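The protein record filed here.
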Amino acid sequence: MTAARGRSLRSWTAAVFAVYFASGLATSAWLTRIPSIADSLGLGPAALGALLLTQTVAAFASVSASGVIVLHLGAKRTLALFSTMVAVGLMVLGAGVTFLQSLPVTVVGLLLFGLGSATWNVAANVEGTALERGLGRSIMPMMHGFFSIGTVLGAGVGSVAAATGVPVVWHVSGMAVVVFALVWSSLPYLQGAQREALLRRQDLQPITSQLTIITGTLPVVSRDDDGVARTPGDGPDSSGSRSGAAKDGETPLSMRAAWRDPRTVLVGIFVLGMALTEGAANDWVALALTDGYGAAESLGAMGYGIFVAAMTTGRMSGTWLIDRFGRIFVLRIACSMALAGLAVFAFSPSLTVGLISLFLWGLGASLGFPVGMSAAADDPVKAAANVSVVSTIGYGAFLGGPPLLGLLGEAVGVRNALAFVMLFVVLSFLLIPWLRPLEAEREGPSGRGGTPSR
């Protein structure tokens, strides 16, 4: 590798890390101020749950269209457009909460945030996948680690802002400016589009052909030199020009078959339980600390920071742990930790113990969603369809979780309502055997496949 190429790759890597870091900052900017948002708008738990649902619905709609958007705009232009949308959404949200105390304006801000953040994340994953190909090695866990670092730092800023009485509008608007500056200063160093063009000239499979796997939603349509539109699984030569393509008679993108596959559906239910475990903390921990434990808003933001710090720790160490001890063993320990942390947080009379339990909860919840996605993609021939099914089922937690927990919180209190999530953690624990690696199952106990027993 020449010195110039090495510098170029380092700059590209730093730019991608910055994009992920900025996404974490943006996410934590408003989540840490949920107690202030609820107080300013006069929202109880049920109404707050409905408000949170607006962001989730917008994100779900956005991610469903993200494949087409990234395909037509490219990752760089998509990041430019949708990070701007996120920044504007944060400012509108802040104005609605502080200046206008208007629920409709706040809803508009959350809709803009949801629409922008979901497609931003998909575009970042596309650019990150291109970077991995350029580097010739996997660094995706580190990329998502930088997102988590952003959430931790953002939670710290939110805690200070809440403790010092900084109005929501100035806090989230300041973070919006930082996020906008980080992303736009990184754009000139992103090289995914150039690399993809080079791959097309070399007749190799470009990154955008993997958008079905990255988004889990839409098939990608490209055009051959003769102008004929084809999906990645089509073409006269199925053996040499397509990476991971199906052989004759196989149907790798058969959604009907994926929905009928028991393992895929059960992996999806596992992901749903763990996604609810993670999402419940993101949405409700700060309010549970202020309303349930009677803590100050700054401690509510700190509690969220503890949880995301634990998530960061778990995800940064998860790859090594799974390689060392096996997927099944690690997931059983993780689910047990999540269940224990959640139970202590819901029922402990001590605020100090409750804060400590958040770290245990975060560690346990950290690996469920990403490992579930990996399990869905165990069979490379069926990966796109299986990941799509698992993603769709998992998103049910983000769609149904906020209003359900809000209604329960209205009746029994937010902290007690979180105990309901324990049922889903138990369900996910019982489904862990279905996440055994398929390759290890095929090899049996005599091969490399001691892994399933772990």
Summary: Residues 212-253, 443-454 have pLDDT under 50 and may be disordered.
